[in-house]
Amino acid sequence: MSADKPLGESTRAVHTAAEPEEKTGSVQVPIYQTSTYVQSDFAVHKGYEYSRTQNPTRQALERAMAELESPTEPAQGFAFASGMAAITTITQLLDSGCHILAASDLYGGTGRLFDDVLSRFGVETTYSELQPGDLEACARDNTSILWLESPTNPLLNIHDIAELSAQAHERGWIVVVDNTFASPTLQRPLELGADIVVHSTTKYIAGHSDLIGGCAVTRDPLLGERLGFLQNTLGAIPSPLDCFLTLRGIRTLPLRMERHCDNAEYLVERLAQHPSVTKLLYPGLSGHPGHEVAKRQMSRSGGMISLELEGGEAAARKFAKNLRLFATAESLGGVESLINHPWSMTHAATPEQRRLEIGVTPGLVRLSVGIEDAIDLWNDIEDSLGASVL
User: Fold this and answer.
1) Which of 58, 203, 300, 355 is catalytic?
2) Annotated domain spans of the chain
3) Are 193 and 42 in contact (CB under 8 A)?
4) Tens of pLDDT along 331-355?
5) How far is residue 148 CA from its own chain's centroid?
6) pLDDT value of residue 351
7) CA distance 41 to 142
8) Which pLDDT belongs to residue 1?
């Protein structure tokens, strides 16, 4: 096979960072469950000293994530113990007195970090809908990072990554994109101009709701050097077993994303016609304000749906309680379907007034559509909607 022929998504996912282990020929990357490595003399070793700094299983995962997010240009990946550990480490690129410009409806845990932790060290954050015309009004002399999510959590807003990145770079800012909702199968922010892409690998990357992890990927060698230093210094790294499981999840990522998207589109088509649904948020809908941008920068619209029902919070709670296949739980992106109530769960730490201002209402629910049979998921939703309005 010619080396210059591009590989498909599934082929890349199966073969990325999957070279046979040299000693035994093991097809799978071994779990190097060790904390330290024997040295032949003081500071003379085989490239491994201590597993906070280097671990072969973690390095395989980091190579895989770099190749998935940047298949055409060299990149560096860094694995972390959680998505929030990755986000926290990235924020340590900032100095005291810096300013972050961030998406208004980003994940509640990220907002909590910005507002309740970074603010104690003199780092301020401004929240904006971040349409291309908003940067001029929100920019400050001390702005250092533009922080995007696209699609956002939980309102599924879309940001024009290419346009915003170009505007940010004109001002000398670092652009960070949380790509958790899309995964590198559907969207690659580095190719659109972002400097750092971050994931909660807990979600679609690992895909089975059985581990906690995070990662960051960059093409910029200087940022890579700084992130590597911070990763080692702060030490919020994942275990070898979690890295192994995440790699296992990567092998089926494109297949799972295809099914997640198929099922979500099937449900959205029917939810859009249901009289009990008063608001339906999904980038694949032609009426979604970010639909055209999503079509340009995403291959498909993803497996997440947010909606409100007639009857508000009471109806939402009844709807969730009557579902059989959608479990009420935190997280998303696993093979099983989940329902989440952002007001009381993922965004409970966000101040109430800001929740209301950005559209995270008590009646909003977020569906993480799994890979079950689509008709079974719809029957479950339809039955529950019928019971919820009685």
Assistant:
1) 203
2) 9-250, 254-388
3) no
4) 999 999 999 999 999 888 888 998 8
5) 11
6) 87
7) 47
8) 46
Which of 37, 52, 112, 266 is catalytic? The answer is 52
| CATH number for the domain running over 254-388 | 3.90.1150.10
9-250 CATH: 3.40.640.10
**Residue environment code for 346-367, b if the CB has 16+ CB neighbours within 10 A, otherwise e:** bbeebeeeebeebbbebbbbbb
| 204 carries an active-site annotation | no
Helix (H) / strand (E) element for 266: namely helix 253-271
- Judge whether 116 counts as a catalytic residue: no
CA-based nearest residue to 290, from 161, 159, 177: 159
Mean pLDDT by 10 residues, the chain (390 residues): 76 90 88 94 92 96 98 97 98 98 94 96 95 89 97 96 97 98 98 98 98 98 98 98 98 98 98 96 97 98 97 95 97 97 90 89 96 98 80
Choosing from 178, 204, 317, 355, the catalytic residue is 178
**Other CB atoms closer than 10 Å to residue 319's CB: what's the count?**
23
Q: 115-133 pLDDT, tens per residue?
A: 999 999 999 999 999 987 8
At residue 389, the pLDDT reads 54
Look up 178 and say whether it is catalytic: yes
* 197: amino acid identity, one letter: V
Catalytic residue among 32, 58, 63, 107: 107
Question: How does DSSP classify residue 62?
Answer: H
The CA distance from 167 to 192, in Å, is: 12
